[in-house]
From TrEMBL:
It comes from the Eukaryota. This is NAC domain-containing protein. InterPro entries: NAC-dom (IPR003441), NAC_dom_sf (IPR036093). Residues 14-174 form the NAC domain. Residues 221-260 are annotated as: Disordered. Residues 224-238 have a biased composition (Low complexity). It comes from Hibiscus sabdariffa (roselle). Pfam families: NAM. Keywords: DNA-binding, Nucleus, Transcription, Transcription regulation.
């Protein structure tokens, strides 16, 4: 049987009238799982591309459509499972919890789906964009003969070498139906400005003054307020000196006491 290939120069080329809209289960079971186990694919329709070698708008394919790629995960640090998702001008950041991909009968988990958002700039001060990526991975590399395809049931899986670092990526641009491109650009710029202002606010430290100290030369108060420390306090005076008596102690705030 001739192997069908719909990929040319890393770009998906389907005949007119055909659309590629697989479900999550089909992506994991029919494509990613077979890729991990080095089994024949239903069709050569998903190219192999390192999605972190380029920005999402520079990856092959139509930017207006969903694009699918087989990619490998590169460890960010030695002896760790954390992936390095930095690109040329930004990075992919995971958001939310991973979602389990179960079979249509709902009795078996076959994979996991991670949602990532692309940010421009360097972490952690990047600006969020509308580029979204769904990263699919298999739960485990199944290599036993009982899990083999029907035409390989009676064969041992000595030639199926698991490649557990393979993932399947679906990348698309989230569209905003009620906003124009110019408005989106303004919102994006405003979001970046707000992040910068928030960072400046968090780095500034509050200044506290001890107004009850006797030595007020180091308070750096404005000239208008230095003449009277108690300018913000209403002083109560009375013509009847027999009822009230105003007293003060040094440079502290005035207080009032009723005579016995």
């Amino acid at each position: 049987m001739e192997k069908l290939s719909f990929v040319k120069n890393g770009v998906l080329r389907l005949p007119p009238g055909f659309r590629f809209h697989p479900t999550d289960e089909e992506l994991v079971v029919q494509y990613l799982r077979r890729k991990v186990l080095a089994w024949p694919l239903p069709a050569s329709i998903i190219p192999e591309v390192d999605v972190c070698r380029a920005d999402p708008w520079d990856l092959p394919g139509d930017l207006e459509q969903e694009r699918y790629f087989f990619s490998t995960r590169e460890a960010k640090y030695p002896n760790t499972n954390r992936s390095n998702r930095a690109t040329v001008s930004g990075y992919w950041k995971a958001t939310g919890l991973d979602k389990q991909i179960v079979t249509s009968r709902g009795n078996q988990t076959v994979g996991m789906k991670k949602t990532l958002v692309f940010y421009r700039g360097k972490a952690p001060n990047g600006c969020r964009t509308d580029w979204i990526m769904h990263e699919y991975r298999v739960v485990c590399a199944e290599t036993s003969a009982c899990n083999a395809p029907p035409h390989k049931k009676n064969q041992t899986q000595t030639n199926a070498v698991p490649m557990e670092n393979w993932v399947l990526c679906r990348i698309f641009l989230k569209k905003r139906s009620s906003k124009t491109d110019e408005e989106n650009l303004q919102l994006h710029q405003q979001s970046c400005d707000n992040q910068k202002v928030g960072k400046l606010r968090t780095t500034s430290k509050p200044v506290f003054y001890d107004f009850l100290t006797k030595d007020r030369t180091d308070l750096n108060l404005a000239p208008s307020s230095s003449s009277s420390v108690s300018s913000g306090i209403t002083q109560v005076s009375s013509n009847d000196t027999d009822d009230h008596e105003e007293s003060s102690c040094g440079n502290s705030f005035p207080y009032f006491r009723r005579k016995p």
